[in-house]
Amino acid sequence: MSVSSYNPADPSDLVIEVEAAGAESTQAAVDQARTAQRSWLAIGAAGRSAALGRAADAVEANADELAALIVREVGKPLVEARGEVARTVAIWRYYAQAPYAPSGAVHEPAVGGGLLLTRRRPYGVAGLVTPWNFPLAIPTWKAAPALAVGNTVVLKPAPEGTACALRLAELAGLPEGVLTVVPGGAEEGTALVAAADVVSFTGSTAVGRAVVAAATGRGVPVQAEMGGLNAAIVLPDADIAQAAAHLAAAISGYAGQKCTATSRVIAVGDAYEPLAAALAKALAAIADPAALTEVCGPVINEAALERLTGAVDSAVAAGGTALAGGGRVERNGWFIEPTLLAEVPAGHPLRSEEFFGPVAVLLRAADLDEAIAAANDTPHSLSTSVHTRDLDVALAAADRLDAGMVRVNAPSSGVDFHVPFSGAKGAGFGPREQGQAVLDFYTAERTVTLLPAGSPQ
Fold it and tell me: Which molecular function term from Gene Ontology is one that the record holds (predicted)?
């Protein structure tokens, strides 16, 4: 069985076709990684730090090639593709310092002499299952910290990001078995989760729940980043023009194919009418053919396009109104207009499910309390933005919103890689990713007691 990846802006362009690894080869990759882990840990902090630094240098030296590959394989606009490559370099460099971080602490024994200490040690093989939307950055922000603390890595990328993952591993130039890519789909992902010593997943809610169940059933540490139905709250005192620009970017940037994209806009009180007009105008400008390629881009495949256009048509048929967009774009590739829908009835899937595209619904709220209740009315929330000039309101909202990230006067989209990252409720499971927090996830804490030889017990 083969894995094929096509250019979403030109569906006739086959980017890569490779044989799927299969369950047996996936298990063999894990076995090889487990053998390689002993020598990878033994090279020490200096060796691992230098190796991660060289990976950063290699990615940076090939930045133009990688940005072009991201554009071609997953349809990301060039500006965002270049940004992803730069972020990937920065992540490798950030975690290149992690091998030198303290790995434990010394404690005073309760009785007698000797040493009582704790140490954090790697689990062994980290199994990573990653999506296609950030085909370099997400594999890197999972792999780099896992490698830094002494694990080896087996990576199963989404089929649509296969070429990017293979090229990333090639450029990283790590010893054989230290970073292995297994192309494939559900069979390979299932086999990897069944064999790895620690598991990190990013993808859909349905698959993420299955990964969590499988890993926890084995007693294996697991973190999962899943769906997000992110909201933006706009207060009447907000800078409406600025808020509309931020929201347009968060709705349509990379065709809304980010877990932090805005899909629900909640206008409070008198903000509704001016925001509706400004946001519709901003999204209409992005629908211009030149801007569509530069800012939005295509969705990943035909199935995604059909699901999005079907949901928009269903919402309009149920009484909703398209204030901007709403249709396919008549050009080669899987393009949909950036879309804003008003008066979508309660209970419609666009108000309760993640569709992963440049489509958002505009909702009304009488006051901040109603807006926060609406924003929290979701089984999975990763990022919520709040737009106001009132610091007290911003702080109060940040305390009450059920979201992994709260961004004030900024788009909901955007992640700082050096701070913890995860969603609330069904959007995330397990410890946080990124920053220093993830180093604890990829290691187990051990307590060690050292007594002088011949000392009484």
Answer: oxidoreductase activity, acting on the aldehyde or oxo group of donors, NAD or NADP as acceptor
Active-site positions read 225
Residue 19 belongs to what H/E stretch? Answer: strand 10-19
pTM score of the predicted model: 0.95
What is the per-residue pLDDT across 412-426, written as a single tens digit (0 to 9) for each? Answer: 988 888 888 777 787
In this structure, the chain runs to a length of: 457
- Quick one: tokens of 381? 């929330």
Looking at 361-445, list the stretches that DSSP marks H as alpha helix, in order from N- to C-terminal side. Answer: 368-376, 391-400, 437-441
Kindly compute the dihedral angle of the four CA atoms of residues 107, 434, 350, 343, in this order, to the nearest 10 degrees: 90
CA 430, 436, 440 angle in degrees (round to 5)? 50
Cα–Cα distance measured from residue 107 to residue 214, given in angstroms and rounded to the nearest whole number: 36
Tell me how many degrees the CA angle 91-95-99 measures, rounded to the nearest 5: 170
Return d(Cα 428, Cα 408) in angstroms, integer: 22
Instruction: Show the tokens assigned to 104.
Output: 């434990």
Distances 113 to 62, 109, 166, 270, 449 between C-alpha atoms, Å? 55, 7, 53, 70, 10
pLDDT digits (tens, 9 = 90+) for 323-344: 999 999 988 999 999 999 999 9
Query: Cα separation of 219 and 441, whole Å?
Result: 14
The predicted model gives 96-102 an average pLDDT of 96
Paired sense of beta strands 125-130 and 10-19, if any: unpaired
Domains along the chain? 2-226+427-450 (3.40.605.10), 230-408 (3.40.309.10)
Task: Check residue 431 and give its pLDDT.
Answer: 85
CA 91-160-67 angle, 5° bins: 45
Cβ neighbors of 360 (< 8 A, separation 6 or more) are: 247, 251, 256, 262, 263, 264, 265, 339, 340, 341
Q: Token pair of 173, please?
A: 């130039």
Mean pLDDT, residues 23-52 taken together: 98
Phi, psi of 363 (to 5 degrees): -120, 155
Of the candidates 358, 336, 345, 346, the one whose C-alpha atom is nearest the C-alpha of residue 317 is 345
Measured CA to CA, the distance from residue 100 to residue 98 in angstroms comes to: 5
